Amino acid sequence: MKKIIISLLLGTLFISCESDDINLDPHSAYTTIPSSLVTNAQKELSDYVNTPSVNENNFRLTMQYWQETTYVEESNYNFTNRNVSNQIYIDNYVNVQNSLVQAKKLINDYQPVPAEALTWPTTKKNQLAIIDILQVYSYQLLVDTFGNIPYSQANQLGSNVAPVYDDGAGVYANLISRLQQDIANLDVTGGLDSESDSFSSADIYYSGNLAAWEKFGNSLLLKLGIGIADANPTLAQQTATTAINNGVMTSSADNCLLQYLSGSPNYSPIYENVKANNRNDFVGGKTLVDYMNTNSDARIAKYFKPVGSTGNYIGQAIGLPASFANFSAPGDFAYTPTTPGILMSYTEVAFYLAEASARWGIGGSAATNYANAITSSFTDWGVTSSAAAYLAAHPYNSSNWKQSIGEQAWVAMYNQPLVSWNTWRRLDFPALQPAAAATISSVPLRMTYPASEYQTNGGNVSAAASAIGGDLLTTKVFWDKF
After folding, report:
1. Is residue 44 part of a domain?
2. Which of 22, 183, 369, 397 could crosslink 93 through cysteines, CB 3.0-4.6 Å?
3. Is 152:173 a contact under the CB 8 Å cutoff?
4. What letters, b where the CB count within 10 A reaches 16 and e where it falls short, cover 403-428?
5. pLDDT tens, residue by residue, 197-255
6. According to the lineage, what is the superkingdom (predicted)?
7. For the domain that residue 381 is a member of, what is the CATH number?
8. Cβ of 172: how many Cβ atoms within 10 Å?
9. 222 falls within a domain
10. Count of domains in the chain?
11. Strand ranges in 91-157 using DSSP code E only, listed in sequence order
């Protein structure tokens, strides 16, 4: 399968592309091999999920983990000056989805040589399943961020420049269905080398390991189920039960990560924005720093740097400018170019298991899953020895499980802010207050639609805005019921 599966150096792969039309990326070389398109899509997806760039991903600010030092517009929820929503659309629809759509086309059009006749059907099925799992992941991000989105008519590569917006609840239901089919299509027992049966080293998340993809797929299915727990409890429980029974992540060895490299342009996007750009734009947010100080949380030494020689951790009030020297900078992980990008972690999954246990009594003991999640977080940050004492001081509270899980997931998801934002909106803990100079009455509950969509797809985006109750930062997405 050498014509399809080719290992390429990261530095030669990644295509920079930008377009206001979410269905058309005129700068991408879509005549290339599918494996390079998949690699590019994976890199772009990880970059978006992990970057702290104020131009595209401000959720470390929204979740009050960090605070801007000088330009505090984004901390106060002004996302229009930088056209942040436009960039989120480009990141997902253009850089990720269009690459994956074209990779599917190339795979479907490929005619195997005689020597590949026996193995190609299995390889093709596995490759298409992996691509579709990545698409499901990206589409869930978009629904969770905006609500109704272009879906059924999106990414048609120029044939439809004005896609309709689909109902978010319907998109979720479809994502669940297609993900279950993707997982079923993965042939992890085909008798051949699982790496050569997929994308091999061109898969920069799991190196073609199909068993790992199956576990990731089930974990993503659990995430989808938990996501709609309040909006559609029946489908949510069915989905979560299926995922758990089929096998989700069981340790950090299962994490879905992108291992960044030491040199540009393939170093961590956190490092790029915190260190490589030679700017001191971020310090710790007072909300999180104070919480960790009050609760003697050993992870604080990993999350942040102490101020000067004082040994003290100090965060700035959310929404106010800050002198970099007077507040705690992000920890060493942010100044390390090879810090991995996290797509999904076992810590995250363990919190979902705790929530499934609390809601429906499935997946084991809620207290055990809660403890596993917190312990996993301490272990991932290199302070395992402090986990037991922290758990003793913060036991699971079955009478207010939303607060127990919500607050501890908020702390643990420090480096997964998109996950944290979802969990906070669903469980309503911790009780975050809006930023100091915010012009809205709450922490943002969604992102508004891009200005580019109003310019190029005005009728459809206006209809979507009306359908969800207004294109506002304070409009709840369909699953945010309380």
Report:
1. yes
2. 22
3. no
4. ebbbbbbbbbbbbbbbbbbbbbbbbe
5. 899 999 999 999 999 999 999 999 999 999 999 999 999 999 999 999 999 999 999 99
6. Bacteria
7. 1.25.40.390
8. 26
9. yes
10. 1
11. 149-150
pLDDT tens digits for range 275-290: 999 999 999 999 999 9
- Element containing residue 478 per DSSP (H, E): none
C-alpha separations of 197 from 42, 116, 208, 278, 467 in Å: 18, 11, 8, 43, 44
Q: Which of 283, 227, 201 is nearest to 5 (CA)?
A: 201
Q: How confident is the model at residue 73 (pLDDT cuts 50, 70, 90)?
A: very high
Query: Tokens standing for 176?
Result: 């669940």
Domain assignment of residue 430, given as a range: 10-263+341-468
- The residues near 219 (Cβ < 8 Å, ≥ 6 apart) are 243, 248, 249, 254, 344, 349, 352
The reply to whether 310 falls in a domain is no
Return all residues near 131 (Cβ < 8 A) that are at least 6 apart: 38, 100, 103, 104, 107
Tokens 């659990």 belong to which residue? 222
Pairing type for strands 282-284 and 66-68 reads antiparallel
Asked whether residue 14 carries a pLDDT value surpassing 80, the answer given is: no
